Amino acid sequence: MFRLWIDALQLTELFLSSFVHLVYAFYIFSSAVAGDISQSLNQWLFSPSSKLHLNNHHLSSLPSTPIHHTLPPIVLVHGIFGFGQGRLGGLSYFAGAEKKDDRVLVPDLGSLTSIYDRARELFYYLKGGRVDYGEEHSNTYGHSQFGRVYELGHYPQWDEDHPIHFVGHSAGAQVVRVLQQMLADKAFKGYENTTENWIISITSLSGVFNGTTRTYLDGMQPEDGRSMKTVSLLQLCRLGVIVYDWINIPWLKEYYSFGFDHFNMSWKKMGIWGLLDCLMGNSGPFATGDWILPDLTIQGSISLNTHLQTFPNTYYFNYVTKCTRKFFGVTVPSSIFRIHPLFFLRVLQMSQWRHPSDLTPPYKGYRDEDWQDNDGALNTISMTHPRFPVEHPNLHVVNDSDCKPLEPGIWYYKVIEGDHIMFIVNRERAGVQFDLIYDGIFERCRKHVFRKNPPTLPNQPHP
């Protein structure tokens, strides 16, 4: 009887979580559609002679004009379920922060593809050419070696003399770290001159460096960090994504894509039997593990971190979001009203999550209490700096004077109050803090982290 009661509670929680996520997804999608319709009507009413031709794919794939500025660009990299410029109409993942500087790029990467695949896509988005996932990797995970084509590239002159600033939200921060390691390892065929110094700075906004216990709450198995529970939110997500890609409605895929085109899951390429094979878990990205959730478990992050370095000539700065506090020694949500409904339940669950006592801990010295503070999606301990399996040089910033002058090769981190999406999508939620955060990021990129001496400041003439 007790077991039936527990099962009923778990099914109720699954229903509520699924409902909240679907409602929020519908809200985002409908907001984007409403914005597009409003923009089209305005253009039709006030500029009737103009031609209304919207092609989101080309907007996301091709730069409008070559970039010839002296200042290095700032590249904003989205996280899981995210999207870049040109997707979801005129909606901005970074809530319009890209408008704060005229040298900002917002690439559209796979929203659920693996960290590895996204890092490869990011390279070719900037340099141009056809995305090459690598022969060995593609054969191992059962997808096409080549992907989207960027005919010109958004910053084709990118090299050590023309480095880039990167700002990554959530999983986007780890994508940039993997990309930098690939550059150091000269992992791109035909580009033997790449080095880690192609990246001048990495700024993380709620970045996931050490995994998150939310993956286990959503359905990843804590035993291995790769397989999924039979009944879970992630299983529902898996089924929905497979059907979405199989139906392959062109205009809908242009509007939003999960990024699995290189797995060829459309009905034209795999047919009905291929669909059934995917749904049964025998093929596709969810069967091979080449998608993002395994990379976000504690085990998956440790596996990635084993091969990732902190480089001595790169500047690192992290903004760590947290919406929990201690109440009589118990970790609880810090507020009812300031936490998004999408995350409130998860904040509570993550603060109370315990690693199964009958399983081997994910790393030596693991303690549940270290992972209680969170922002509804990531644990605070994961966002500060790379910690596992080896802790990297770091410094906790309380006052801005703590990091002046900013030194390369050190992970500076600052803890701020907010949930995981406080500083994306909906600008009004963050209020004035939104501008303080992004103004600080862009000012640091423009004034404090130029590698060459003397630095060229934005208000000074360029040579």
UniProtKB/TrEMBL annotation:
- Domain (Lipase-like C-terminal) spans 73-185
GO MF, any single term: hydrolase activity
Coiled-coil ranges (or none): none
- One of its Pfam families is Lip_C
Keywords assigned by UniProt, alphabetized: Hydrolase, Lipid metabolism, Secreted, Signal
As for subcellular location, the record says: Secreted
InterPro entries in the record:
AB_hydrolase_fold (IPR029058), Lip-like_C (IPR056304)
Database matches in Gene3D superfamilies: alpha/beta hydrolase (3.40.50.1820)
GO process annotations (BP): lipid metabolic process
Q: Name one GO cellular component term.
A: extracellular region
The main location class comes to secreted
| PANTHER family membership | ALPHA/BETA-HYDROLASES SUPERFAMILY PROTEIN, ALPHA_BETA-HYDROLASES SUPERFAMILY PROTEIN
Which protein are we looking at? Lipase-like C-terminal domain-containing protein
